[in-house]
Write a structure and sequence with these properties.
There is one protein chain. Helix 2 (50-68) packs across helix 20, helix 21 runs parallel beside helix 25 and helix 23 (693-713) runs antiparallel to helix 24. It is globular and about 115 Å long. By secondary structure, it is an alpha+beta fold. Strands 10, 11, 12, 13, 14, 15 and 18 form a seven-stranded mixed β-sheet that branches. Strands 2-1-26-27 form a four-stranded parallel β-sheet, with helices on one face. A four-stranded antiparallel β-sheet has the order 6-5-9-19. Bound molecules: ligand ANZ. Ligand ANZ binds next to strand 11 and strand 15.
């Protein structure tokens, strides 16, 4: 039976922290260096669970650590509280999404307090508060002013289940990232943010993050932006005045182009078909309708038979004047490059598949069998793509290409571009996979788009001083998804007056993608209550960028890319002096149940409140920190809560037994124990800064064992080294098990709070491992020498001597009558025979 239960201890310290605002970040007058530590803010769905417990633990450890290191730490929390789950829950119950949202937020807050998080509770934000989302609207207007927010009609990704559009980033393998429904295309006029203007910067600036962000995340961002280098090549089309441009990464292969392909859904295809025979027009129309039902994924799939319609029109190859038949085929996408390609079947697999399906010529122009080539040493005749079905891709030397012959691929590309630029028939070009960010959503629970539609169909911004455009009450509104925004039916809300002209106007009925909310929230924490700015630039100068950002790999693209984009926009506006929002990024692993992710839908969620009730916060925190490397997934079955519980009880017992007075001079204490203490003081900063929390826990266990040993079998509980070690444990364990840390500190006779105690420097003299040379004698004669620690015990020294080979030889066949040990200097075996 414990004198004071984990729960009583926990309550006591949580109350203390709340009353004293212990973790409030220092203000302007605070001269200490600053650290901004942040966990990706939660979505307030349901209760906190094991996933939250691990995700938010890590940044808390780091924040607590930096406080000991003399830093002014900001570690805030807020809620990403707009979005579909609240709306769907409201629809189910015929309720207001606000109720569900704010009820859950209150539960989360209580959960985090109960879990002992060291947040600055004066800076809490909720993105669904008008005080927050007015700044989303302000951001929208700033982007609009800079030409970075625009409206366009195009085929967008439509989730038929959620009845709303999706950004490209929200379509995963052709399905809605949220609900898994197959995404279809729909033509709509929508608002976009022009992230493509920032494509080069978003890509190039990743290099400087190498070593600070997980490499995998950087790679995912690079691939998402997907910059290709190549050329735009102009092709004359018979019967058309204007040339048509195509993008190619392989302009060197122009001599091998044998046909030309247009995306059926590109305007050019319809135009070319319109100038063709009635039969072609019909076949084309038919094909176009089929294409429009397909997803981009299907269209680009390589194992699907190629289809297409010959348009009976011809393009002229600019390098040799050859006539290239023009086809409409769905493997060419309308919104990539220029929506048309020069097809080089010998060297492009998709073109080859098409050529073989429709019996089009295949002409090799790169010999890849040469030394250094992709098929080095092969026989070009045997490798003919027309018969093998495999295109010759990669390096080689030009052939059948006039005076390019003999040039390496790279040189041939450069030469071709140079010539086209001189002739005015082409130019160097870059292309990106990245598309503009579609931000309109046809849902209620989000930030209203602050634009007005006038009667003459012009669209004008709501003036800044009229913000926020608040969401109307849900009363009388049907939130059920029906393909258009529920806000459109809020008649009184939609109908308004343009303040500039006094003319009647309609509000834009759509709301913003909630990724807008999270693209800048880390700046809002710096001046969360300001009604003057979204964030105070002076505060941003002091605190930002975020020094340590913690979150899941699922945000590798969307959230991080959008945040990086908006940060660069703020930089260009002169509001901040940095271009990357997160200096260091850590992706933590997931907690798994029998190998699979814990989730509501699988019904295997372990709720935080249950565990807190059973074991208390510190046992859970310690067990999770000990469960393995931060980046690894952790099996819940492998997390030992009872082990952690026992260890923490052991820690407190050490505090209770320590009997030397506060301020006792440790220098007179047991050196072995002091060595363990000081080695940990020296090593722990590296362990925390490299997020090796599991190793830190193991080392703390070692130190507590050392204390136990000194108390039980050494100098005893009154040895000042015991106090020194116990105080070190209190300070360090506070980062992981904060209630226990505070309690131990108090039991050691100190005033709270241990969280503000500075990290002592390790004594360098205690870090060198002193060794001495021992002489091992047999009947007084030196038979061997041993290098041993200066503080070795007699028993250990005798054992070491007996284990030595030379000593064993000297003792062979003899009877040992007496052993004299004087650690660490001498061992003498007295022998007979
Ligand atoms: C001729 C060529 C020859 C090509 C060759 C490749 C190899 P990335 O790297 O993804 O940018 N392309 C261009 N626009 C396209 C579109 N709208 N839909 C489908 N394919 C398109 O790919 C660029 C290459 O993809 C371009 O280079 C073009 O084919 C094709 F041996 O041009 B290439």
């Amino acid at each position: 039976a414990e004198p004071l239960s984990a729960h009583a201890i926990q309550d006591k310290w949580q109350q203390y922290w709340a009353q004293n605002d212990t973790f409030r970040a220092g203000g302007d007058e605070d001269e200490r260096p600053r650290k901004y530590i942040l966990g990706m803010f939660p979505y307030p769905s349901g209760d906190l669970h094991m996933g939250h417990a691990i995700n938010y633990l890590y940044p808390d450890i780091v924040a607590r650590y930096w406080r000991h290191r003399g830093q002014n730490v900001l570690n805030p929390i807020g809620w990403d509280s707009f979005g579909l789950p609240a709306e769907n829950a409201a629809i189910k119950r015929g309720a207001d999404p606000r109720e569900w949202t704010y009820k859950n937020i209150e539960q989360h807050k209580a959960g985090f307090r109960g879990y002992g998080m060291s947040y600055d509770w004066t800076r809490v934000l909720h993105t669904s508060d008008p005080e927050y989302y007015r700044w989303n609207q302000w951001l929208f207007l700033k982007l609009y002013e800079r030409g970075l927010a625009y409206r366009k009609k195009s085929a967008v990704n439509w989730c038929p289940n959620d009845q709303t559009v999706l950004a490209n980033e929200q379509v995963v393998e052709g399905r809605c990232e949220r609900c898994g429904a197959e995404v279809v295309k729909k033509k709509l006029t929508q608002w976009y943010f022009k992230i493509t203007d920032y494509a080069d910067r978003l890509l190039d600036d990743l290099d400087a993050l190498e070593g600070h962000w997980p490499h995998k995340v950087l790679q995912m961002q690079r691939n998402w932006i997907g910059r290709s280098h190549g050329a735009d090549v102009d092709f004359r089309i018979e019967g058309r005045d204007e040339p048509v441009t195509v993008f190619s990464t392989r302009p060197d292969t122009l001599h091998g182009a044998t046909f030309f392909v247009v995306a059926p859904d590109a305007d050019l295809a319809a135009e070319l078909a319109a100038g063709s025979s009635a039969e072609v027009r019909m076949r084309f129309q038919d094909y176009l309708e089929k294409t429009q039902k397909e997803s981009d994924i299907e269209r680009q799939s390589t194992d699907r038979p190629k289809t297409g319609v010959f348009l009976e029109r011809y393009a002229i190859n600019p390098v040799n004047g050859e006539r290239l038949p023009i086809w409409a085929a769905d493997y060419v996408l309308a919104d990539y490059g220029h929506g048309a390609v020069m097809a080089v079947p010998a060297h492009d697999q998709r073109d080859l598949d098409f050529a073989r399906a429709f019996d089009l010529p295949v002409k090799i122009v790169v010999d890849t069998t040469v030394a250094g080539g992709a098929n080095e040493g092969g026989d070009l005749a045997e490798l003919d793509p027309a018969t093998t079905g495999t295109a010759l891709v990669g390096n080689g030397v030009m052939t059948g290409s006039g005076d390019l012959d003999g040039l390496e691929k790279a040189d041939a590309i450069a030469r071709t571009i140079e010539r086209m630029e001189q002739a005015g028939t082409g130019r160097a070009a870059k292309n990106y996979r990245l598309r503009d960010w579609l931000i309109s959503r046809q849902r209620f629970w989000g930030t209203p788009i602050p634009m007005l539609h006038l009667q003459d169909e012009t669209v004008v911004p709501v003036p800044e001083d009229r913000l926020p455009v608040k969401l109307p009450s849900v009363e009388g509104l049907d939130l059920k998804p029906k393909g258009s925004s529920p806000l459109g039916a809020a008649a009184e809300w939609v109908r308004t007056i343009d303040p500039a002209t006094g003319e009647p106007a309609l509000r834009d009925p759509d709301t913003m993608d909630t990724f807008v909310d999270s693209s800048w929230y880390f700046l809002r924490f710096l001046s969360p209550n300001s009604d003057q700015f979204a964030f105070d630039p002076a505060e941003a100068k002091r605190w930002a960028p975020v020094d340590g950002y913690f979150g899941g790999i699922e945000h590798a693209i969307l959230h991080l890319l959008y945040s990086r984009f908006i940060t660069k926009v703020f930089f260009d506006m002169g509001l901040i002096d940095f271009q990357e929002p997160f200096s260091n990024l850590v992706n933590q692993g997931m907690v798994l149940m029998d190998g699979s992710k814990m989730s509501k839908s699988k019904g295997n969620l372990v709720e935080l409140s249950d565990l807190l009730a059973q074991y208390g916060a510190d046992s859970l925190r310690l067990a999770l920190a000990f469960a393995g490397p931060v980046e690894d997934d952790k099996e819940w079955n492998g997390v030992s809560l009872s082990g952690a519980h026992k260890f923490l009880a052991r820690v407190l017992r050490v505090g209770d037994e320590t009997s030397s007075p506060v301020g006792a001079d440790a220098a007179t204490g047991d050196v072995t124990l002091r060595r363990i203490t000081h080695r940990l003081l020296a090593d722990a900063p590296g362990l925390v800064e490299q997020t090796k929390f599991n190793v830190l826990v193991a080392r703390l266990m070692e130190l507590v064992n050392g204390i136990r040993k000194t108390i039980d079998t050494g100098a005893g509980a009154g040895d000042p080294a015991v106090r020194e070690a116990a105080e070190t444990v209190a300070m360090m364990i506070e980062t992981i098990a904060p209630h226990t840390g505070e309690e131990l500190w108090a039991r050691l006779g100190h005033e709270p709070s241990v969280s503000a105690v500075p990290w002592p420097d390790a004594d360098p003299a205690l870090l060198v491992d002193d060794t001495v040379t021992t002489a091992v004698q047999v009947n007084g004669k030196v038979r061997a020498t041993l290098d041993v620690p200066a503080d070795i015990s007699d028993a250990d020294l005798e054992a070491a001597a007996r284990a030595d080979e030379k000593v064993q030889r000297a003792l062979e066949g003899k009877e040992i009558v007496r052993v004299i040990v004087r650690a660490p200097k001498i061992v003498n075996f007295a022998v007979k025979g």
